[in-house]
Specification:
The complex is a heterodimer of chains A (94) and B (982). Chain A is of the alpha+beta class and 94 residues long. Chain A is built from 2 helices and 6 strands; from the N terminus they run βββαβββα. Chain B is of the alpha+beta class and 982 residues long. In chain B, strands 9, 10, 11, 12, 13, 14 and 28 form a 7-stranded mixed beta sheet that branches. A 6-stranded mixed beta sheet of chain B has the order 41-42-43-40-34-44. Classes of the chains: A alpha+beta (94), B alpha+beta (982). The structure holds zinc ion (ZN).
Chain lengths: 94, 982
Amino acid sequence: MLRIACPFCGTRDHSEFSYGGDGSVTYPALDAPMQDWHDAVFLRDNICGRQVETWQHVHGCRMWLMVERDTMTHEIFSVRPAHPGLAGALEAAE
Amino acid sequence: MSARRLDAGGRIDRTCPVSFRWDGLTYHGFNGDTLASALMANGQTVLGRSFKYHRPRGIMSAGVEESGAIVSVGAGARQEPNVKATMQELYDGLEARGQNAWPNVHFDLGAVNGLFGRFFSAGFYYKTFMGLPPFEWGRGTGLWMQYEKLIRKAAGMGAASRDADPDAYDHTHAFCDILVVGSGPAGLNAALTAAEAGRDVMLVEQDFELGGDYLNDPAAEAERAEMVAAVGRAGVRILTRTTAFGLYDCGVAGLVERVTDHLAAPDPHLPRQRFWTVRASATVLATGALERSVAFAGNDRPGVMTASAARSYLNRFGILPGQRVVIATTNDSAYGVAADLAAAGGEVTLADARDEVTSAPAGVAMRPGLAPLSTVGRRGVQGVRLATRSGNGWSQAAHEECDLLLVSGGWSPVVNLSSHRGAKPIWNGDLACFLAGPTDEPIHMAGSADGVWNREDCAASGVAAARRAMGEVVEAPAPGGWVRPIQPVYEVRLPGTKAKAFVDPQHDVIGDDVRLAHQEGFVSVEHLKRYTTLGMATDQGKMGNVIGLALMAEALGREVPAVGTTRFRPPYTPVAIGALAGRNVAGHFKPLRRTPLHDWNLRHGATMTEAGLWQRTWYFARAGETITEAYIREAATVRQTVGVCDVSSLGKIAVQGPDAAEFLNRVYTNAFAKLPIGKARYGIMLRDDGIVMDDGTTWRLGEADFLMTTTTTNAGRVMVWLEELLQTRWPYLRVHVTSVTDRWAGVSVAGPKARETIAACLELGTDISTEALPFMGVAPVTLKGGVKGLIARISFSGEQAYELYVPADQGEEMMDLLWPATEKLGGCLYGLEALGALRIEKGHVTGAELDGRMTIDDAGLGKMASSKKPYIGAALRQRPELTRADRPRLVGIFPKDRSQTFNGGALLCAKGRVSGFGEGWVTAVTHSPALGHWIGLGYIAGGHEAWAGKSVTAADPVRRGNVEVEIVSPHMFDPEGVRMHG
Ligand SMILES: [Zn+2]
């Protein structure tokens, strides 16, 4: 029963969210070689501890979020919009 | 055991008698009784039979740790097995039965199992039936399957009702600053301290009365009443009859509140139970401690119980549970019990395993240095043999006659909830118990749950826990509090003897089982647990785990901490499945989606079917028609004249913005950048890994305005995917996506007379000729009467066909225009079954073919993949494994004997080689009205070219058997598409 502080809606139960994946992956250009895509899609670290992951507030504002979470304790360190423009705008507003 | 109800004393209401039925006979108790106390007062000693050996069992405790008095309660659909009689509140008309016994608990034929006890020793199942390695298919497994039913019948728990649960259950949510679990001296003080400091406090108690250990001491009643009143005044939210069964991440606690389980005639508007999800900023666990027994021969005989239980029956329920009482203790806690029982008129002998005795309570005969060795008696205890220490072991020293034997082997703090959070319990050798391990979470132990034994210290411990929960740094009372240290005794037996000394009475695990496990090489406590099933019954070893660990430690020649403990997992006590389900049952199990035309369809004879969450039209049977006759007629009518089908459930996503065309060009495998306004295009989108995600048509309504359609099934998934791409990967694209599925009512109008049908419904002068609205053309239209919508000339059926969309709330108006026009031309309404037949004839794919494993080439749509532009999945669809020539390819399937049919899901095998996974599989089968026989779609290695002229078997061994088939092109009807473009 994680609780995630959505920057747009407030703190909500994790059942409102759906898990995306590893938030640290930079996807290659569409015309990048197969090997680059292979690495981006299939190679994942199995982190014990802090990792950045994507979640979508699918039963809320539907925004994709970057969530920094401890995979052992489920402690959540930060939540920000995945969209860099929105993240920047929120930071500027603070 | 010669228990009798006293004339006075206890918390029961003697002015309020209650009648109940036990094993078919009527008995009486009082308001305030539990089923266990009422049965005890009625002289009932044998209340059940044990799990494996069918030994008679009686009441062993007065609480949640009960392992003997496990009964079935209720009748008919409300029959509930494995209820602890010690926790079941008595009410008028309560109906209960003993279980695991036939014909009854007093005369049980299954007790013969006891004579064959060696067959049920640890690992019996594994050794006998899984002689071949477990999980491997072979002789042992076969034997197992043969005997399993018999053994389950002989050894088992009570039976649940086979009927649907007639009761309602609610889910509810709550927030608080501090959740206090347990309302004994520690819990009440914790709740009061926090509430008086202004915190929002919830106090949860599994019992029906607040007070915990206060309830067992009449001298403390004034103090208890004052505390209960004070927490009420302080605004504490109190939940009784509520068990905190689990702690979860982020301060979440799961509670089950038994709302009506204690009522004779519950308000039908109340739920039976309420499942609470509580989110607390901090949690105080004042969950108390459970007294444990000692393993010795016959320690499960009715009339043997924990010492504290006797005190509870005496002081809370007004019952003197035995006349001649022997108490065998290892610690100070039994002295108060001895004094109370003696004062109530019992003849009490107190055997203390410790040699030095300082003071005997008044009227109690002291027997220092003695521990229980074995009990005598048949269905009830008649005497106990006592042993004295001799060297490293024990030797028989005395015999005492008695009708009640009370045992105190020590106390186990209830650390279960803390363990749920991963805090590993730590062994305290001085107190001979596990204490909660450290945790970084805001969870604070209080009272005897923290190993604090004295009531005053427990109260102080509760105050301290509350203050810590509020962020203060305070000293808590140290664990302990007995005058003389405990002398741990876990098992008493004479060297070299074998006896049934129960460690886990609920699962019939004995000391010898633990030693056998050790002899057979088990050293890990987790393995021990699984091999012997110790602690795996419904009580999760509340009484037996510590003894089992101690015996294992002894066998290994180690200390208890070196053996470790197993982790407790939720639930603390069993939770009814109905409570977990709540209101999400039957029609509320999942959301229901109806199209805007749902009612209209029903009025016009539709039979509906489920398609994911959607209710869709399945077929429109005319009088006397079967489903098969109906869909064949509908499909044939579409090919001959015209048919109308509700397609409103198709996913619809508005893709809008200056970069919308560029976005679609990246998402779809084919080109969308130059799609003209007023045209639609069929597109396929892949996942990153090159596998097909979904397909559908996208319509360009304006320069920066597209309407994407998706399959019904994948609408939600595609929407999430587009949002992910726009927000995480390509945030610079100026595109907005909006789900508009529910905005539109949509129909497909298909057949040679489709244009004529629609034209009759449009505003006069609207031109939808091929010149004005060519194949794949899109245009806004106005219906007669002024309803505005969209029309697109697209075809799934392979006929001349249109999709017509109008605003959802005007859908019925559209149908009321379309249907007369359709009927006039000899057309019909058609459902999913006919739609399936039409698309299978054409070889058009849907979810059955695009099942998340197939590439665009597998589906025969490789020409849809652009080589001129990159798109999602373009790189990884070229992986060597996905481009092998022997990949499965979409094919059409005809039965060799055209009068035969075959099944969807059948495996396609080369003739004569029906084995393993075969060469392919059948995804869809229909009767084709156009071809006049059964046809199918499927996949087979290499595609239809590779199988031309070869014999193939559609193998379905469990249903239809083998059918000879031919593999053909998937485009089985009108492969050139003449009809569609006409
Ligand atoms: Zn949100």
